[in-house]
Amino acid sequence: MQELVDFLKANKLPLKISISEDGTRMQEKFCYDATSNQIIGPVLPLTNNGTPISGSHPASSAAMIASHMKNGRVASTGYAIMAQPLQNKAPAFCLSLFGTDNKFSHTDVHKRWYFIKKELAKFGVEVVNFASDGDPKLLKAMHSHMFGQSGVDNKNTVYFKEEWKSWFFASSDLNFYVMQDFIHTANKFRTRLNPSTILPIGNYLASQTHLNILIKNFPKEEHGLTEDLGKDKMNFDASVKISSERVTNLLEDNVPGSDGTIAYLTCMRFLIKSCLDESLCAAERIYQIWYCLFFLRMWKIYLFYHSSYNMNNFVTSNLYVCVEIIAHTMIMMIVKFREESTPEYFIVQLLGSQACESYFRLARSMTSTQSTVINFCMKEFLSRVKRIDVLYLVSCKLAEKLVFPREKRKKLLGNLTAEKLRLEYLPNDDEIFQIVRKARCDVAEVMKKLGVKCSADSSLVHIKQYLSAMESFEDDDSICEDFNSSYTTVLDEEDISLDLLAAFPSPGDIVGLDPLHSEETVLSPTSIFVMVPTVSGGFIKMRKTTFCWLLSKNGLKLSSDRMLRVRQGICFSLSTSNTQVHAATKPKRKPNIEEGEWCIFKKQRVHCIGQVISFTYLTGSRSYTLPSAPTDPPKDKEKARGVGCMCSWYTLNSDRSLTYKPVKVQGFINIDKYVAHVPAPTTNVESHLCLDSEAFSYFNKLK
After folding, report:
1. Exposure check for the chain: N or C terminus, fewer CB within 10 A?
2. What domain of life does the UniProt record list for this protein's source (predicted)?
């Protein structure tokens, strides 16, 4: 704690900070540290205040080392707690770095937060907020802190503002605030938009297929999208691109039936801009983040009361609660800094967990030229801390003079200056209320156009109850690094002959020995050597590092390709080189249907025209991940699962125009009902979709 205070004072930084926590995958390995005479690698136990107990694994004897390695859980994650001063371009400070296996609880997190805030307050440092990136344990701690006492039936609840209680659910007795990382939250929006998930919004669907159509039919310079936007879960640039105004404008003008996708991407864009666009004022930030939240709330209420849909047709609970937290905290921060007359501290970009991400990027930069991941263990990570701290400090202080490619971050818009922060106007309570009210009315108008019946305030009771009762915060679309990644065996010691290995008893036998054996007391407990018993009954003098290696299983080295560890496990791409749509030039039956194509199906003896959005297996639990499907799938009863098509349906009028046909329930039609392909409709002078005359005649003959 004292080091942090000295750091702030030495660099003339404010004594107001944001604390963030995050972890990164690292090599699982037990090592001996001669400096501290400790075994580094086992998970450290936690105190009653949620902080790790250092010095828990002394290496005083062979029996003690064997005991730590037999009974201890090896750390798989390097966990950093960073302190970010609330000043633009200020470097963050690593408050703590330790190894964990992520098996701590949300109560441990809560206790740690209270302890950190209390201890730093003794030095005059104020912790304004704690941040994370959607980790379920930390998210649960944030949820219980902000919404745990805001149940609708709790008469003792004291709301942050009583007059806001119909839409603002956070309690008023918060001694610190919590925040979710904006970049991770935006990426969760993008990863949820995948072919295996049906996202119905009223009469329309939010679907990745609409983006596919843009890529296949329009040049790249018009939309800016690339073929691999959906592959990397960590690709924030992809999230910015697909939610840009030029993409939604192109969808609106050229892709019929994409209204749901446009609304979804607009919500996503408002989240990004409200948190990361440096040109926005506080009022604009409030409007955009609460527009995003009201969109999700109304969508959720619609699905809740719909007889055929459930929460599997919604964004993940993890993502939804992240947006709730961001929206509530943003208003509470504005009120706090307004009442304290310190608008210069309202720097939204610093309230997330990007300080941890920057720290981990610098750690990865210290691996070999052939590796872009943290390919070292906890001991090696700790040995690099001072170098990382220096590089972090230099990269922040000299950001205007030197270019650090690994730390270069693109600004969305605008330029944040100290003068602008000092002159920042923070709206009063009445203005905040009016801004939120406008956001809600605008969302209601959009939902009405989509076919969603917007509920009155009374329906928000469901949202309150939902927030209060939530227990699970697991995220199926988690963008955390995949722990089931490819590994390769690595030996960090010289090869030791099998004869030497066979000369030692098992770790269990060594643990059972008396650590104060007379032969062992010859060496000092702090010596880098240890006396190890052999199966013959004698002892051999050995380095503690070598002894740790002998007792360990083969080390695991992470794949040097980070993309393999964060890439989607399913086939999720917006376009591939072999999935281009070859549009039909005249009505005919084809062997395959691809996403985005226009087809005729026969539904209950009636022929219908639809644009194919996605596919699914009609039986079994496996997701259909291909962008096309055979029109004559296998009929083998033992193997066939059947393929269904989801379509946007249209009514063919007598003047050859097509009218979008809303459906109460979005579902799949068996591909067996497929009749033929038709050419994609064109737009007439009245901006209506229109079939060509040949397709029109073909369809009428089917009746």
Report:
1. C
2. Eukaryota
Residue 361 confidence (pLDDT) above 50: yes
pLDDT at 581: 44
The answer as to whether 267 is a domain residue is no
The CA-atom distances, in angstroms, between 513 and each of 58, 505, 547 are 17, 11, 16
pLDDT higher at 690 or 492: 690
Q: Are 564 and 485 in contact (CB under 8 A)?
A: yes
Same domain, 521 and 629: no
Q: Are residues 604 and 679 in the same domain?
A: yes
Residue 653 lies in a domain: yes
Mapping DSSP to helix (H, G, I), strand (E, B) and coil, where does residue 165 land? Answer: coil
Of 541, 559, 584, the residue that ends a domain is 541
Angle at 226 between CA 613 and CA 243, to 5 degrees: 70
Burial-class residue 56 by CB neighbours within 10 Å (0-12, 13-18, 19+): middle
| Residue numbers of the domain that contains 607 | 592-702
Q: Do 10 and 129 belong together in one domain?
A: yes
Please say which residue of 384, 407, 430 terminates a domain: 407
Claim to verify: residue 537 and residue 596 sit in the same structural domain: no
CA angle 450, 456, 457 (to 5 degrees): 130
> Do 526 and 633 have their domain in common?
no
CB-based contact 230:238 (threshold 8 Å): yes
For residue 489, pLDDT over 50 is answered with no
On the question of pLDDT at 79 being above 90, the answer is yes
Number of domains in the chain: 3
- What is the full DSSP assignment across 21-81? EEEEE-----EEETTTTEEESBPPPB-TTS-B-TT-SB--SHHHHHHHHHHSPBP-EEEEE
As given in the structure block, the two tokens for residue 399 are: 């950001």
**Which uninterrupted H or E stretch holds 566?**
helix 563-566
Residue 420 in any domain: the answer is: no
21 with 357: CB under 8 angstroms?
no
Q: Is 481 helix (H, G, I), strand (E, B) or coil?
A: coil
Q: Is the pLDDT of residue 41 over 50?
A: yes
Please give the Cα distance from 130 to 19 (Å, whole number): 5
Where would I find the H helices in 167-258? 182-192, 209-217, 220-223, 236-242, 245-254
